[in-house]
Amino acid sequence: MARILTYHKIGSHFEFGVSTIRPGVFKKQIRALADLGLRSIPATEAVSKPAVDVVSLTFDDGYACAYEVAAPVMLEVGFRGTIFPVVGAIGGINRWDVRLSFRSIRHLGWAELLELSEAGFEIGSHGMTHCDLTRLDRDRLRWELRKSKAMLED
């Protein structure tokens, strides 16, 4: 299986927790991966590709920093990634971390997702509402998955 690196937020602001990486550190990581001769592949390929010369870069929750910070750095070295937006939060402000970070964190908008897709980034789904999918009954789980998939495909 390929290496899969998952990111959440890339920013210079202070955050409680471990889900934010500073832009300079992100850039160093991407350059190091490129210097190692690795190629980037989408997450859908990474789960089935045993190649050792590939890496999949994924971005959970669909924060705007994937477009504003990550994409330019990655495109510079020919990398692409996979974005997993919370579909119900597209174009909005983060609602689940705000109590911890004391700031509003913007999610990608539809136009930014389209631009990333056109640039070769894969767009997956992180559900509709950022809920714990393992705790849902079958009907609610189907709704989360089907609705988010349908909206992304439109």
Question: Secondary structure elements and their pairing?
Answer:
Elements lengths: L2 E5 L1 E2 L9 E2 L1 H13 L3 E2 L2 H4 L7 E8 L3 H12 L5 E4 L12 H4 L8 H9 L3 E2 L14 H16 L1
Parallel strand pairs: 1-5, 2-3, 4-5, 5-6, 6-7
Helix pairs in contact: 1-3
CATH topology: TIM Barrel
CATH superfamily: Glycoside hydrolase/deacetylase
State the total count of DSSP E strands. 7
Number of helical regions = 6
The chain-level structural class is: alpha/beta
How much helicity do the residues have? 25-40%
Distance between the termini: 31 Å
Q: Over all CA atoms, what is the radius of gyration?
A: 16 Å
Rounded average pLDDT? 91
What is the overall shape?
globular
Instruction: Report the top-level CATH class.
Output: Alpha Beta
SSE string, helices as H and strands as E? EEEHEHEHEHHEH
Range of strand content: 15-25%
Any low-confidence stretches, pLDDT <50, length ≥5? none
- How many structural units, i.e. domains? 1
CATH architecture: Alpha-Beta Barrel
Largest sheet composition: 5 strands, parallel
